[in-house]
Amino acid sequence: xxxxxxxxxxxxxxxxxxxxxxxxxxxxxxxxxxxxxxxxxxxxxxxxxxxxxxxxxxxxxxxxxxxxxxxxxxxxxxxxxxxxxxxxxxxxxxxxxxxxxxxxxxxxxxxxxxxxxxxxxxx
Amino acid sequence: xxxxxxxxxxxxxxxxxxxxxxxxxxxxxxxxxxxxxxxxxxxxxxxxxxxxxxxxxxxxxxxxxxxxxxxxxxxxxxxxxxxxxxxxxxxxxxxxxxxxxxxxxxxxxxxxxxxxxxxxxxxxxxxxxxxxxxxxxxxxxxxxxxxxxxxxxxxxxxxxxxxxxxxxxxxxxxxxxxxxxxxxxxxxxxxxxxxxxxxxxxxxxxxxxxxxxxxxxxxxxxxxxxxxxxxxxxxxxxxxxxxxxxxxxxxxxxxxxxxxxxxxxxxxxxxxxxxxxxxxxxxxxxxxxxxxxxxxxxxxxxxxxxxxxxxxxxxxxxxxxxxxxxxxxxxxxxxxxxxxxxxxxxxxxxxxxxxxxxxxxxxxxxxxxxxxxxxxxxxxxxxxxxxxxxxxxxxx
Lengths: 123, 396
Fold this sequence. Notes:
- Chain A is of the alpha+beta class.
- Chain A has four helices and nine strands, in the order E-E-E-H-E-E-E-E-E-H-H-E-H.
- Chain A has one domain (2-118): CATH 2.40.50.100.
- Helix content of chain A is 21%, strand content 37%.
- In chain A, strand 1 (2-5) and strand 2 form a beta hairpin.
- Chain B is globular and about 65 Å long.
- The chains are: A alpha+beta, B alpha+beta.
- The interface between A and B is medium-sized, with 12 and 16 residues.
- Chain B: One of its GO terms (molecular function) is aminomethyltransferase activity.
């Protein structure tokens, strides 16, 4: 299983032809207390870069973009029921959706963990 | 350069005096400092700094939710040094101020504060402010983002023999919350004698202070004007008390929204009149009878007949916050107004908002839809404040 990162602060954990997507620890810290999340439903087709989910903190609203193209397998009901889960465990239980990859080649343009963490330090 | 201005009560001998304004555009150029006196203190306390009103300000420390709830239950320390502190003095300042403000300034008792509005000729709101009488002088606190424009308006509108001191050597902090009084009394004895909307001069840390029982969170609390050189010492003394935590701009905004208090530049602007904004309490009886303030014909007519639109509170269904700029729709789906402030209420654990609607639809309980990014939300006009005020009123 390999994890990739985007410049929009999403992470993608790839396992075969499926991937799990969420927002990074850096992103949840920047957002602060998260009070609302909306995740895509199973069966939805998403294009790379398309708005896939919504995350809102006390002060700010943000879109979560799909880092890859594919069909949504599952949205995480747990973060809808308790959105503070995204604050507590952003890169684990606080995932947003699982997606079936249409083109694994899209992953080539994403950062690995080291590159992402280094890049975040420059922000 | 900033002038040293004594910040105590009116004292003809100690009060520093500024230059009289000429009405010309020259004035004194004010190079804008980008950092406030407490800048490094905020950083040392873990404040996340953002630019606001031309200054670097702490938006949050441990998190908006925790800071908000802490203030409602304990005491929160806010740095509001970006706000403009002005001292107006000269012959018959009270009558002169009544030509630009709709409040009863002449009837304001010594050391009392009054919420007022700086109006333009059409009755639009240039800024909202607090005015305090200190003897024959008046101490005004205006918004940070608007202060230079306000000073310009005052220079052009007020008689030439009045002085407007921009007290740039002063810092301003607010201590807000139910435990604020006990905390501050222990450091500066005597402050607990103040009641809501009353101020007085104190002395602490080797400096004169002006302290008023006021704030913008809906809680009991104080605003403390202190020379910038001493503000860090004051802040340290306050947070040394375990009941006090520093609070950022984020929680300041959610607190004032719950308190139903409008924010200039969002809920108020030059397209808003005091009647539309629901601020008619700021126009006292004598001024309604006599007029003589900017925009009086329009405002008096609106007082009589009502304004076409009114500021209202909105309860929003569900958990998703509806924010500034969202459309307010009537039953037919037509746009009847806009949300001017909106967010998630940490005290109520649900989204709240305020905005403007046609006056006919402003009754509490009226059901309306809100539209944000193409999504519709059920909403109801709500009475304000959303969270009850807990001011320390006389006799309370």
